[in-house]
């Protein structure tokens, strides 16, 4: 009996092992076979819902008309600012199984992929499709690394925006139509709002939202050139002017909601819409959110963050051509759609961003985007760290950690030291 | 010779798949991770890496962020184990004393275990909202409605390391107390009734009965509970990630820090953190394994 049992188990064990290895093989074969037969173009994004998904759908319909030979395969991974998606992508790239094309923030964040040799140079395609003429020179300068361009931007977002509730401002007799002239004037307004019974005038949320508040204060206090230099290591991060800016940031945080580490940016925007707060600092994807939440235009107002008027703090979602991708021709067709006038229109009217091309027709777009498009051509362009235009992923990780530490135990010296260390790291 | 193969051959065959799978997927990968932690592979660049000895470990233990995450982990583990044992044993005692509808209570207590950590983390993230007074939401709102305002607190967003990590441990305690209850209840039921009767006949009070007769027999169960809870606490990632998000300095533990490090493609550092975590788990598990092996050989 004993021998019988052990034999049975031995057979089961051996069969199990065979089955495991067989499964592995058959999976490999089937995925490899399908991809080459069907001309699929797998597009990797973190646009899974809301205005972002609507924008992607717009791009897909343009792709379907432009590239009839290919089929769009959605490989989106949900998660704020792509935090989960970037992890999945890093694994796929490390395993040398890149998608046909993937989404990446243009600028320093793309720099990681370039240094790692994971994306191809697309400068020739720019000439072939006339993109070098269609995009403004300031954007091309920001995209160029050592004379080469590695991605095609689908849009431009503006980060240094304040969204305000005019009804709340009116309670404290503050003029809602124009921004306070400086951070100090803004702080004075917050004091007035507190006196008028608004407990937390500035609504903000966890992670990158607090980083965006810090960035607009730094931009206002340092000015665009020193601000841009800060991320490149040209401006002394330990300087007295940075200390002064960080002290003002601390002051601003004292006017914000206590649950700032527990909520996400749509909740913070909700505080403004529900008249529990007066302001929130957030990028212009707020315009799309307000549209989908059916908040009427008259219920909110917006202006560049105090002291940063004349500066356009940009971030850009762009698509790349990964090295060793499955079907480079299909990926190129996707990139061509992304860069085309129709593709940009289909995408941006829905996502709440503005087209990267300067030949777009303003009247095709809603009210907010029209003002942003005017600023895009007239303003000075500065990059954003929170959204990868000025910082690498590693730098941003260290800065986010320092900011969350500061949100709890507010020590300016520790924050400044951590900021300087983060900028020096890679 | 042929006869001897017949005796041990089938057994070896049965074990072979396990040995191979474990050898590769557990021990092989531990070795590979340890090897990575000794290199300078700090990015995804396909350049040859070289061994740098224990440099990554020296850097890690000189880093505020890592030391902070280790301290957080220590506090979390203590709060989690103590909290879960208290509730688990208490519930087991209550059920053991005999109540009507025991099955229903058992299900209620065990039910949270059926919820995945990531799902309960999302809900608890909302329950642990730090707003108080008129703006209160989540648990604070409940306390406000019940006029228990003294219980309202900012949870993990303010205060000392103890209040922070104890707040994070709260959902984990909620999830696993039922499991510990089940363990202890099984233990109580395993003790023969004659022992109780004998103790009662000898005139032992109810307290003395538990103190000197029942609890000493549950020490192996208590030890298993301690090990299970301890290693679960060290692995805790999904719950913390769901409640606080990544990059929260106040609540960061090594497993979350490892995730953040992997995201920036710093393989060597991430592998270093993994090995430190493994070492901490080993400190907990090895004495337990040694103890059980000795027990078994004595028997």
Work out the number of β strands of chain A: 14
Query: Mind telling me the CATH superfamily name of the largest domain in chain A?
Result: Periplasmic binding protein-like II
At the third CATH level, what is the topology name of the largest domain in chain A?
D-Maltodextrin-Binding Protein, domain 2
Query: What is the overall pLDDT average of chain B?
Result: 89
Oligomer: heterodimer
Name given to the CATH architecture of chain B:
Orthogonal Bundle
- The helix-strand sequence of chain B is HHHHHHHHHHHHH
**Rg of chain B, Å, rounded:** 24 Å
Q: What ranges of chain B have pLDDT less than 50 throughout 5 or more consecutive residues?
A: none
* Number of separate helices of chain A: 19
CATH evolutionary superfamily of chain B? MetI-like
Keywords (chain A): Signal, Transport
Protein name (chain A): Probable sugar-binding periplasmic protein
InterPro entries (chain A): Bact_solute-bd_prot1 (IPR050490), SBP (IPR006059)
Signal peptide (chain A): 1-22
List the helices and strands and how they pair.
The complex is a heterodimer of chains A (426) and B (299).
Chain A: H1 2-38, E1 40-44, H2 50-66, E2 71-74, H3 83-94, E3 101-105, H4 108-115, H5 123-129, H6 131-134, H7 137-143, E4 144-145, E5 148-149, E6 151-153, E7 157-158, E8 161-164, H8 166-171, H9 183-195, E9 202-203, H10 208-222, H11 224-232, H12 240-253, H13 265-273, E10 279-281, H14 285-292, E11 301-304, E12 311-315, E13 317-320, H15 328-339, H16 341-351, H17 367-378, E14 380-383, H18 393-408, H19 412-424
Parallel strand pairs in A: 1-2, 1-3, 9-10, 12-14
Antiparallel strand pairs in A: 3-13, 4-5, 6-13, 7-12, 8-10, 8-11
Helix pairs in contact in A: 2-15, 2-16, 10-11, 10-12, 12-19, 18-19
Chain B: H1 2-37, H2 55-61, H3 64-96, H4 102-110, H5 117-127, H6 138-145, H7 161-190, H8 193-201, H9 206-214, H10 219-235, H11 238-244, H12 254-263, H13 267-298
């Amino acid at each position: 009996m004993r021998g019988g049992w052990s034999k049975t188990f031995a057979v089961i064990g051996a069969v199990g092992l065979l089955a495991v290895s067989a499964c592995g093989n058959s999976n490999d074969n089937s995925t490899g076979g399908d991809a080459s037969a069907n001309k699929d173009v797998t597009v990797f994004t973190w646009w899974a819902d809301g205005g972002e998904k609507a924008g992607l759908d717009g791009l897909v319909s343009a792709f379907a008309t432009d590239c009839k030979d290919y089929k769009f395969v959605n490989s989106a991974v949900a998660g704020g600012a792509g935090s989960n998606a970037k992890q999945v992508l890093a694994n796929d790239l490390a395993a040398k199984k890149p998608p046909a094309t993937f989404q990446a923030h243009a600028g320093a964040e793309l720099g990681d992929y370039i240094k790692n040799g994971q994306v191809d140079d697309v400068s020739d395609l720019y000439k072939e499709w006339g993109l070098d003429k269609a995009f403004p020179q300031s954007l091309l300068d920001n995209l160029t690394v050592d004379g080469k361009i590695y991605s095609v931007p689908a849009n431009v977002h503006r980060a240094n925006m304040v969204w305000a509730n005019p009804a709340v401002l009116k309670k404290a007799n503050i003029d809602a139509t124009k921004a306070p002239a400086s951070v100090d004037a803004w702080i004075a307004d917050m004091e007035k709002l507190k006196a008028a019974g608004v407990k937390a005038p500035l609504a903000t949320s966890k992670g990158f939202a607090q980083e965006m508040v810090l960035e607009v204060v730094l931009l206002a206090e340092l000015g665009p050139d020193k601000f841009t230099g800060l991320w490149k290591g040209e401006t002394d991060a330990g300087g007295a002017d940075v200390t002064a800016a960080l002290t003002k940031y601390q002051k601003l945080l004292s006017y914000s909601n206590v649950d700032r580490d527990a909520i996400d940016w749509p909740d913070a925007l909700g505080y403004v819409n529900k008249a529990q707060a007066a302001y929130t600092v957030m990028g212009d994807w707020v315009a799309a959110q307000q549209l989908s939440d059916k908040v009427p235009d008259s219920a909110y107002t917006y202006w560049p963050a105090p002291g940063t008027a004349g500066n356009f703090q940009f971030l850009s979602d762009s698509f790349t051509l990964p090295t060793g991708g499955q079907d480079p021709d299909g990926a190129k067709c996707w990139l061509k759609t992304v860069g085309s006038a129709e593709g940009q229109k289909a995408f941006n009217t829905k996502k709440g961003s503005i087209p990267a091309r300067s030949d777009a027709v303003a009247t095709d777009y809603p009210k907010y985007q029209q003002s942003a498009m005017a600023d895009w051509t007239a303003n000075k362009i500065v990059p954003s760290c929170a959204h990868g235009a000025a910082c690498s992923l590693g730098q941003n990780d260290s800065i986010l950690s320092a900011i969350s530490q500061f949100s709890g135990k507010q020590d300016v010296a520790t924050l400044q030291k951590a900021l300087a260390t983060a900028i020096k790291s890679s | 010779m042929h006869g001897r193969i017949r005796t041990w051959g089938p057994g070896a065959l049965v074990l072979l798949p396990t040995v191979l799978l474990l050898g590769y997927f557990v021990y092989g990968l531990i070795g590979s991770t340890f090897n990575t932690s000794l290199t300078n592979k700090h990015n995804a660049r396909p350049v040859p890496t070289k061994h740098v000895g224990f440099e990554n470990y020296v850097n890690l233990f000189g880093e505020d962020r890592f030391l902070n995450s280790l301290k957080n982990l220590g506090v979390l583990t203590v709060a989690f184990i103590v909290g879960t044992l208290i509730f688990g044993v208490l519930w087991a005692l209550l059920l053991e004393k005999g109540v009507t509808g025991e099955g229903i209570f058992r299900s209620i207590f065990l039910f949270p275990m059926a919820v995945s950590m990531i799902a309960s983390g999302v809900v608890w993230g909302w329950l642990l909202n730090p707003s108080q007074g008129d703006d209160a939401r989540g648990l604070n709102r409940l306390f406000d409605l019940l006029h228990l305002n003294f219980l309202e607190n900012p949870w993990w967003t303010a205060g000392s390391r103890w209040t922070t990590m104890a707040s994070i441990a709260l959902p984990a305690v909620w999830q696993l107390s039922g499991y510990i209850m089940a363990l202890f209840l099984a233990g109580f039921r395993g003790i023969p009734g004659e022992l109780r009767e004998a103790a009662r006949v000898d005139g032992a009070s109810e307290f003395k009965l538990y103190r000197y007769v029942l609890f000493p027999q549950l020490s192996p169960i208590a030890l298993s509970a301690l090990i299970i809870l301890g290693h679960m606490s060290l692995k805790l990632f999904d719950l913390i990630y769901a409640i606080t998000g990544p990059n929260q300095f106040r609540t960061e533990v090594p497993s979350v820090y490892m995730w953040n490090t992997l995201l920036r493609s710093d393989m060597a550092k991430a592998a270093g953190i993994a090995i430190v975590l493994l070492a901490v788990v080993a400190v907990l598990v090895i004495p337990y394994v040694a103890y059980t092996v000795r027990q078994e050989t004595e028997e």
